Amino acid sequence: MAGTGSLYEDEDGGNMIVDINVTPLVDITLVLLIIFMVTASYIVQPALRVELPHAATGEDTVKTTLALELEKDGTLSLNGTKASEDDVKAFIARALPVKPDLQAVIAADKAVSHGAVVHVIDLVRQAGVHKFAISVENAAAGGK
User: Fold this and answer.
1) Element (H, E) at 66
2) Cα–Cα distance measured from residue 50 to residue 53, given in angstroms and rounded to the nearest whole number
3) Which range marks the domain in which residue 124 is found?
4) Scanning 23, 42, 49, 76, which has its CA 20 to 30 A from the CA of 105?
5) How far apart are CA 144 and CA 137, in angstroms?
């Protein structure tokens, strides 16, 4: 007779259902994976597209608070936002008392003239930062 059996018994003969249905678990896991993949693209910091020169002896540097970038047209950016030379000097003046061993990482497009890069290095050194690195792509990883 229907409806007289226990909730834990199947319809065939009174055996208990002991299998776990993993389909809902897999569905939820895949949905969470998709959510994480979509949100991860929004977490990434926006960056300027700078074509770095290649060097075989390039090394990784630690994340610094003073990242300078020179674009093809000579535009200077400080930590991802466009800035003037006075903005850079003001930032260094505020940051040096907090972090005396401040290091500048300078990334310049390979189309930028050598003189413009030297000018930025000189600007940083005059402001009081004596440790600096020039950002390059590793030739083994980058190609040309």
Assistant:
1) strand 66-70
2) 9
3) 54-142
4) 42
5) 10
| Structural domains of the chain, count | 1
Q: DSSP letter string over 91-139?
A: HHHHHHHH-TT-EEEEEE-TTS-HHHHHHHHHHHHHTT--EEEE--EEH
In a domain, 21, yes or no: no
The answer as to whether 48 is a domain residue is no
Could you report the per-residue pLDDT of 67-120, keeping only the tens digit for each? Answer: 888 888 888 888 888 988 899 899 988 888 888 888 888 888 888 888 888 888
| CATH number, domain with residue 114 | 3.30.420.270
Please give the C-alpha separations between residue 29 and each of 25, 26, 39, 93, 108, in angstroms, as whole numbers.
6, 5, 15, 49, 43
